[in-house]
Amino acid sequence: MATSLAEENYLKIIYRLSENTDQGVSTNAVAELAQTKAASVTDMLQKLAEKGWVIYQKYQGVRLTPSGQKIALSIIRKHRLWEVFLVEKLGYNWDEVHEIAEQLEHIESESLIQKLDEFLGFPDRDPHGDPIPTRDGKMADQIYQPLSEIKEKMDCVLMGVAKDAAVFLQLLTKLDLNLGAKITILEINSFDRSLQIQVNSAAPIFVSHEVAKNILVKA
Amino acid sequence: MATSLAEENYLKIIYRLSENTDQGVSTNAVAELAQTKAASVTDMLQKLAEKGWVIYQKYQGVRLTPSGQKIALSIIRKHRLWEVFLVEKLGYNWDEVHEIAEQLEHIESESLIQKLDEFLGFPDRDPHGDPIPTRDGKMADQIYQPLSEIKEKMDCVLMGVAKDAAVFLQLLTKLDLNLGAKITILEINSFDRSLQIQVNSAAPIFVSHEVAKNILVKA
DNA sequence: ATAAATTTTTAGGTAAGACTAAAAAAATAT
DNA sequence: ATATTTTTTTAGTCTTACCTAAAAATTTAT
Ligand SMILES: [Mn+2]
Ligand SMILES: [Mn+2]
Ligand SMILES: [Mn+2]
Ligand SMILES: [Mn+2]
User: Fold this and answer.
1) Residue ranges making up the domain that contains A183
2) Cα atoms in the 13 Å half-sphere on the side-chain side of B147
3) Best CA proximity match to A79, nearest among A19, A123, A34
4) Are residues B134 and B162 in the same domain?
């Protein structure tokens, strides 16, 4: 069955909110991400349920059915492949591509995404370190951990980010914290949990706990 | 002012119908290309006129204003650049790209189309030989002429097509009539104006007047 | 010049996807 | 256990872009 742009965006949002929990997703949570009102969300959830893409019962929150999940993953696949294209082929920075990919992810053509994947050399992570779902809808787990959970004195490598916001990514770029950067944790301040770290053996810098939470690393 | 997808498509259609005439474009002509009803077209023309993109007076047909023309040309520019991308970079055939470009042409990002243009090496023709409007909205004239207007015994080179339809392009491909093909007109049959031609010095073939009209060549 | 045919516009409706205000249910506090 | 607060749903509108049927204007034929 064909999906409208609005439906695709809702399914993607429900998918994202389901990732960290096995509870149903609340109407308000969806409304916030969709930048719309709860009443509009209720309308849409009823429609998505009729189409068989979500399980929805009044006041019980919503969850994706397998077919709804499949649609969400195909949109995420397209989003991430286009992000790779924008960075690798067109020379964008990682903080500039999300909004454009939000549009490109809705282009409908099986063959297009197939050929794009091939053109890009079948990447398995996007420019933010997020796994790209496969053609048959399997997504690798996020195997990296937040920098905030690494112990003092440890070395690690920046593999991704948990947040796409341009302001955040721009801050990282300014601090030379790019994908692949080598990070050494010199000290964790117990007062505010901020960290003193060394990036690629340069002079030490400070980052807040909030920043460290959104940086994904491998030891 | 922002343009909706429907508005962009209408402006593009009006542009296309205006190319061959300096008369206003009729409601019915627009309706046919838009695959919609005349009543819907009237509605939209009134809206486009309010936004200042067309001059419209009841029963008098419609024509683009300079700002309407500018929008139309920017959509056409995007359409053709994406077609080049699809053929040159992703390996599509020229008969497969139109529908996908119809979607891609509505992606909104100045920088994207700028970078795409650069990535493609600033092409000035699309895979069908059509000129790509420049960034500031100038489009080169179609300098090629229909094969149907070439005299007997003359040599020419296939530079483009006047029709994008997949069935037509597939026929050309089957006949080895690709961009750059060398064509010699052996004979024009006065009965039905069909032509006997030689393509790249291969065995002679026949093409109808209808086909010849839609093949653009340079002598 | 008038009649007939065609084209175009108007009038009135529909579906999608949003909104506000009010009602109902659920969660939290006393 | 009841009252209060918060969340969610319902009811009623709005806008965009489409539709059909009918009316009006224009064009073509006689
Ligand atoms: Mn993104
Ligand atoms: Mn990403
Ligand atoms: Mn095309
Ligand atoms: Mn083309």
Assistant:
1) 145-218
2) 36
3) A123
4) no
Q: How far is B149 from chain A (nearest CA, A)?
A: 37
Domain count, chain A: 3
Structure confidence at residue A219 as a pLDDT band (50, 70, 90):
confident
**Pair (A50, A102) in one structural domain:** no
Question: A110: part of which helix (H) or strand (E)?
Answer: helix A110-119
* Residue A112, domain member (yes or no): yes
- The full length of chain A comes to 219
Q: Are residues A110 and A167 in the same domain?
A: no
Predicted TM-score (pTM) of this structure: 0.93
Note the CA–C1' distance, B43 to C9, in angstroms.
Answer: 9
Pick the closest to residue A48 from A7, A13, A78, A12 (CA basis).
Answer: A7
Residue A33 has what pLDDT? 97
Domain boundary among A17, A40, A64: A64
* Mutation for testing the A interface, residue in B8, B82, B86, B105 having most A CBs under 10 Å: B86
> Does A184 map to a domain?
yes
Distance of CA B52 to the CA centre of its chain: 25
> Which of B:78-107 have CB within 8 Å of A?
86, 89-92, 96, 99-100, 103-104, 107
pLDDT tens digits, residue range B5-47? 999 999 999 999 999 899 999 999 999 999 999 999 999 999 9
| Angle, CA of B184, B189 and B190, to the nearest 5° | 130
Same domain, B137 and B150: no
Residue B73 tokens, joined: 């040309």
Which of A89, A124, A141 is the endpoint of a domain? A141
Residue A7: both structure tokens together: 């439906």
Q: What angle do CA B206, B211, B217 make, to 5 degrees?
A: 95
Is position A71 within any domain?
no
- Cα A195 to chain centroid, rounded: 24
CATH number of the domain that residue A197 is part of:
2.30.30.90
pLDDT-above-70 percentage for chain A: 100
Which class for B145: exposed (0-12), middle (13-18), buried (19 or more C-beta within 10 A)?
Answer: middle
- DSSP code of residue A31: H
Examine the domain organization and report whether B44 and B12 are in the same domain. Answer: yes
The CATH code of the domain that includes A11 is: 1.10.10.10
Angle at CA of residue A113, ends A112 and A118, nearest 5°: 100
Angle, in degrees to the nearest 10, between helices A5-18 and A38-50: 100
